[in-house]
Amino acid sequence: MTYSFNSFYELIGHQGQKYKNKTALFVDNEKITYADILQRADAIAAFLVYHGVQKGDKVALFLRNSPEFVYTVFAASKLGAVVVPINTFLKEEELSYILEDSASTVLITSKIHEKVVKASDAEKLCNFIVWEGEAFEPLDEQNYSYDEAIRFDQSIKANTSGLEDTAVIFYTSGTTGRPKGAMLSHKNIFSNSISGIQHITLKTKDRGIIFLPMFHSFTFSIGIILPLYAGASIVIIKSLQPFSNIFKQTLLKRVTLFFGVPDVYNALSKAKLPWYFMWFNNLRAFISGAAPLQPKTLDAMAKKFKRAKLLEGYGLSEASPAVCMNTLEKQKAGSVGTALAGYEMKVVDENLVELPRGSIGDIIVKGDNVMQGYLNHPDITEETIINGWLLTGDMGYIDDEGYLFIVDRKKDLIISKGINIYPREIEDVIDGFEGISASAVIGVADEKSGEIPVAYIELDEGVEKIDDTALKGYLREHLANFKVPKHIYIIKELPKNATGKVLKRVLKDKLKKDEL
């Protein structure tokens, strides 16, 4: 790949001149140009330097969706500092852990998160905190207003940053043990931008909408950096409530690219949208990531939106995060698409030997998107990246046309009497039963079989119960007997993370404690 910029700051510096008066960000009724972003990033960078931030320092972002989030990313890049986006749903102990593990020296946060921040160790761990929105009171040498930062009138020279320098650290959800920080370089993120622009033919006239959390790698890389790299525009939604505002802004701001997750598309496929939205919207593509799409959602969206394609993709934070995606020309139901330009995908056995097309095995990825490694964990990094290949931890197969089909997470595989059972296959069948919104299948230890599949289901809104006999008959009709869950439990809501991915470890933990 050929890269036009060495850093995020070089990117916005160039775009701030080339597209000086073009609106880059739409936020409510405000229009923010590329020149505005550059000017505000420069002011914040000078403010940070004035208060001692240096090249290589970590700047933590515990922020809601906002233009301030965007400004700070470019400001930190100007200094050669590293941004650490943090999940705003975390509690004080979790926030403290990430601040300490990353050795963040500055925390940029919002007044709405004051309770969590003040209850954490943030003030002990960080040199100072900058408050976006209504400032924390009293302001002192450790608490500053973002308004003060953004109006700082000194200027500084940009620090030289390289493509290979660490730009951002995303903390993984921590499926086992504590979350780990995936270190990504400018090259890692920019490779996603370049490949993504080619894959969905992104133009300067395109407008993407961001309502998913900016702290997530999918939103950060694909929702923010990619459009700005292309000279396109972004519509920022600060809050999911009311949900109707997303559709209002999609229509009013003439959005062409809709970035979402399966939960959103599941709701969208069922929503009764006004005729004028269906008639006048400018949407040409729905981009889906973070979790698998249900087949019924794909079908419903295709019937509902004739002019826009729903493109399911696949990725992980360790891969910046995008790896592959369906194309505008061809989408395969159940597949997450073909590799983005410049990346390689393989399906291998336990010895990392490539398997024939159609064979199920471990998915590994190679390319400029593969992370530098896990912060403070060289040992785990060596186990995860072998000869440049990233071991994703996912299992699947690649068909003769190069389309990848995800079967399941390797850690979720159920082995019953020596036979492999893939929970996702069972979930796809369960989700097709009328009245069921979503499901999660886990393996439970069993003396006779080793493990047995157990299912938890969440019902559609307004549905109070389903016919157990009919459901079991339906499952036996579509699944081999050994795959049919031995127990099926209805729960009010499946535990999920910020992007709608079901947290199976939570279900397993609750089952052990007999909480379900």
What does this structure look like?
Pfam families: AMP-binding (PF00501), AMP-binding_C (PF13193). The chain crosses the membrane at residues 209-230. Residues 14-375 form the AMP-dependent synthetase/ligase domain. Keywords: Ligase, Membrane, Transmembrane, Transmembrane helix. There is one protein chain. By secondary structure, the chain is α/β, with parallel strands linked by helices. It has three domains: 34-161, Rossmann fold (3-Layer(aba) Sandwich); 183-409, ANL, N-terminal domain (Rossmann fold); 413-512, GMP Synthetase, Chain A, domain 3. 32% of the residues lie in helices and 26% in strands. It has 17 helices and 27 strands. The strands form six sheets. A nine-stranded mixed β-sheet has the order 2-1-11-10-12-13-14-15-16, sandwiched between helices. The protein is globular, with a radius of gyration of 23 Å. The termini are far apart. The model has no long low-confidence stretch (mean pLDDT 92).
